[in-house]
Amino acid sequence: MKGQLETDMGKIIVDEDVLAKYAGSAAVECFGVVGMASVNVKDGIVKLLKRENLRRGVNVSVEDEKLRIELHIIVAYEVSILAVAENLVDNVKYKVEEYTGMEVGKIIVCVEGVKVIN
């Protein structure tokens, strides 16, 4: 499903891939987030995604005219997961709403792994 905005001049339709890439970019900027994760459900393997594949770690849908964003992340070792998740939700919500003009209704953070950073 695509995000839609009504303006005085007409309708704006934003593809969910665009929304997912933007949300993924905003997510990896947050302190404590090592990167986005791709989960292979069949094998149960979590893989750290490269910057150009951020979209695969994000699911975006529209529910009741609001965006629902699900982020699959890998966090840095020895950081508070709760603090990282709260910061992540605030940052992604602000940036996506500012960028698209669409309201974010719900953000779900799925911590898929922890990585030790040197």
Helix-strand pattern: EEHEEEEHE
Tell me about the largest β-sheet: 5 strands, mixed
Number of helices: 2
Low-pLDDT windows of residues: none
Structural class assignment: alpha+beta
First-to-last CA distance:
40 Å
Mean pLDDT: 83
Give me a quick take on this structure.
This protein has 118 residues and is α+β, with helices and mostly antiparallel strands.
Q: Any overview of this molecule?
A:
There is one protein chain. This protein is α+β, with helices and mostly antiparallel strands. 28% of the residues lie in helices and 43% in strands. It is built from two helices and seven strands; from the N terminus they run E-E-H-E-E-E-E-H-E. The chain has helices at residues 16-28, 81-100; strands at residues 3-7, 10-14, 33-40, 45-48, 58-63, 66-76, 104-115. The strands form two sheets. Strands 3, 4, 5, 6 and 7 form a five-stranded mixed β-sheet that branches. A two-stranded antiparallel sheet has the order 1-2. Helix 1 (16-28) crosses helix 2 (81-100). The model has no long low-confidence stretch (mean pLDDT 83).
